[in-house]
């Protein structure tokens, strides 16, 4: 069976290289621009047949060139079009100049734009390559369009969105639709850019896929195509240990729920055996709520070392509701010394605050044995210097992964999974209902189950994040973490 291809995300630099390589291969740049601009016109006519007028905002680069082609195509189809340019259109060069010269109508300054009833704005001011704040005049036009509520069709990305990071550069159009080319860009899936793009259409403008693959980096959209090949097939010869034994550490008697959520989720996600390692004072509290999850007393580091003697206990989750940072640190280091796989979450992450080097040293040489799952606050505590940088979320996650030599699941509505080798994926389909107490504990358990089943760490994390979001979708509105557990399925 042929597996689906992972969806590539092309950064602005990469799409520039794709364009250059396509032209070097013999394709004509102006023809590629014509294909792009006419795709924009086709989308405008298809989705806005009742538009009374199409104001086309053209910028000073190739994105503006796409706009001139779109305007020409729309007029050819009988539409009422007005073109408004940022800067002097006579200073355009290359393919954009050819596109400008194809437009036979007048070109007005962007400042001259006045909204009319029935306008559908085509935003071709800036594309994915924007890396500075938009000029004041563009801010004013963005505000003017927003006040009228006119629909916006963005060319490539809404102007004001940084194509590499999804950040807003001063101000940005909020588009109803975006038309992009070849592949989507990071700004389409990372927040806040994603919420400004509306429905995104991707058009093939004739660049061969071999060129795209040659120039693409290691950033992908998360989904089954990334991890399906690593799923462990069920077998009639399986037994519970062959499917993996996951140990989840519980906190003290007053904070046992988080670990039970992790353990329950792990069992639903396909771990063959899950044991809750509980302090003695919490055994009664945990035992009253457990059935299929096993229970074992673990009070000291010596108990952990004894537990690790059994090689079948191959994977661990440490941190949910754990409370004691000193214990968490010592337990994590013992797991590392014994060459086991660890998902470090919550209090387990905070146990290494400002000391990511200790994690890197502990897990050095054991590639794929560590996954950490920080939210924004935990990420900042563990990686204060990285968190302060002006880089985007993907770049921060990759820097953190290199700093610890493990997989980083940088949580949020646009969770990024990053590996020290430069691979990264972003989850775009997790519903907002996951913003509820205990949700992260469930995620840690799912990833732990995937590790116990033998998935490589990066794929285990990608699968876990996807399973988590899919479970939330099945749960519907009003979900609690307990509901979430009940809807978890194996990868």
TrEMBL record:
SUPFAM superfamilies: Ribokinase-like, YjeF N-terminal domain-like. InterPro entries: Carbohydrate_kinase_pred_CS, CARKD, Nnr, Ribokinase-like, YjeF_N_dom, YjeF_N_dom_sf. K(+) binds at residues 63, 123, 159. It catalyses: (6S)-NADPHX + ADP = AMP + phosphate + NADPH + H(+); (6R)-NADPHX = (6S)-NADPHX; (6R)-NADHX = (6S)-NADHX; (6S)-NADHX + ADP = AMP + phosphate + NADH + H(+). The keyword Nucleotide-binding applies. Keywords: ATP-binding, Isomerase, Lyase, Metal-binding, Multifunctional enzyme, NAD, NADP, Nucleotide-binding, Potassium. AMP binds at residues 411-415, 440. Pfam families: Carb_kinase, YjeF_N. Binds 1 potassium ion per subunit. Its cofactor is Mg(2+); K(+). (6S)-NADPHX binds at residues 62-66, 127-133, 156, 258, 321, 375, 441. Residues 15-213 form the YjeF N-terminal domain. Residues 223-491 form the YjeF C-terminal domain. Its EC number is 4.2.1.136, 5.1.99.6. In the N-terminal section; belongs to the NnrE/AIBP family. Belongs to the NnrD/CARKD family. Bifunctional enzyme that catalyzes the epimerization of the S- and R-forms of NAD(P)HX and the dehydration of the S-form of NAD(P)HX at the expense of ADP, which is converted to AMP. This allows the repair of both epimers of NAD(P)HX, a damaged form of NAD(P)H that is a result of enzymatic or heat-dependent hydration. Homotetramer. This is Bifunctional NAD(P)H-hydrate repair enzyme. It comes from Rhizobium rhizophilum. The lineage of its organism: Bacteria, Pseudomonadati, Pseudomonadota, Alphaproteobacteria, Hyphomicrobiales.
């Amino acid at each position: 069976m042929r597996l689906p291809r992972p969806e590539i995300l092309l950064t602005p630099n990469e799409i520039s290289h794709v364009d250059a390589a396509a032209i070097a291969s013999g394709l004509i740049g102006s023809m590629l621009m014509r294909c792009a601009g006419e795709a924009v016109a086709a989308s405008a006519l298809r989705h806005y047949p009742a538009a009374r007028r199409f104001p086309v905002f053209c910028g000073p680069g190739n994105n503006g060139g796409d706009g001139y082609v779109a305007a020409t195509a729309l007029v050819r189809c009988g539409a009422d079009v007005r073109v408004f340019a940022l800067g002097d259109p006579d200073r355009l060069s290359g393919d954009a100049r050819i596109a400008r010269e194809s437009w036979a109508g007048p070109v007005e300054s962007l400042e001259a734009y006045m909204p009319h009833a029935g306008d559908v704005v085509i935003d071709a001011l800036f594309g994915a390559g924007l890396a500075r704040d938009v000029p004041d005049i563009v801010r004013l036009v963005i505000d003017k369009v927003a006040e009228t509520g006119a629909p916006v069709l963005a060319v490539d990305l809404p102007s004001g969105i940084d194509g590499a990071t999804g950040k807003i550069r001063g101000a940005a159009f909020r588009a109803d639709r975006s038309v992009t080319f070849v592949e989507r860009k990071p700004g389409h899936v990372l927040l806040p850019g994603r919420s400004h793009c509306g429905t995104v259409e991707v058009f093939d403008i004739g660049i061969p896929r071999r060129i795209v693959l040659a120039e693409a980096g290691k950033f992908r959209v998360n989904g089954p195509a990334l991890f399906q090949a690593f799923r462990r097939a069920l077998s009639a010869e399986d037994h519970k240990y062959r499917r993996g034994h996951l140990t989840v550490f519980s906190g003290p008697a007053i904070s046992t729920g988080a670990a039970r959520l992790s353990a329950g989720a792990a069992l639903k996600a396909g771990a063959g055996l899950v044991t809750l390692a509980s302090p003695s004072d919490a055994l009664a509290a945990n035992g009253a709520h457990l059935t299929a999850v096993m229970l074992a007393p673990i009070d000291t580091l010596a108990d952990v070392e004894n537990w690790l003697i059994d090689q079948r206990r191959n994977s661990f989750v440490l941190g949910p509701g754990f409370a004691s940072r000193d214990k968490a640190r010592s337990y994590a280091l013992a797991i590392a010394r014994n060459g086991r796989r660890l998902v470090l979450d919550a209090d387990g992450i905070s146990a290494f605050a400002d000391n990511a080097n200790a994690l890197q040293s502990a897990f050095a040489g054991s590639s794929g044995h560590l996954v950490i799952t920080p939210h924004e606050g935990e990420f900042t505590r563990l990686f204060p210097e990285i968190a302060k940088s002006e880089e985007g979320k993907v770049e921060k996650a990759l820097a953190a992964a290199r700093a610890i030599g493990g997989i980083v699941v940088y949580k949020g509505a646009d969770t990024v999974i990053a590996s020290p080798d430069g691979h990264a994926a972003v989850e775009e389909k997790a519903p907002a209902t996951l913003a509820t107490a205990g949700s992260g504990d469930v995620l840690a358990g799912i990833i732990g189950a995937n590790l116990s089943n033998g998935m490589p760490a990066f794929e285990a994390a990608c699968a876990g994040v996807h399973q988590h979001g899919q479970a939330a979708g099945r749960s519907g509105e009003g979900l609690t973490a307990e509901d979430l557990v009940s809807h978890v399925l194996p990868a």
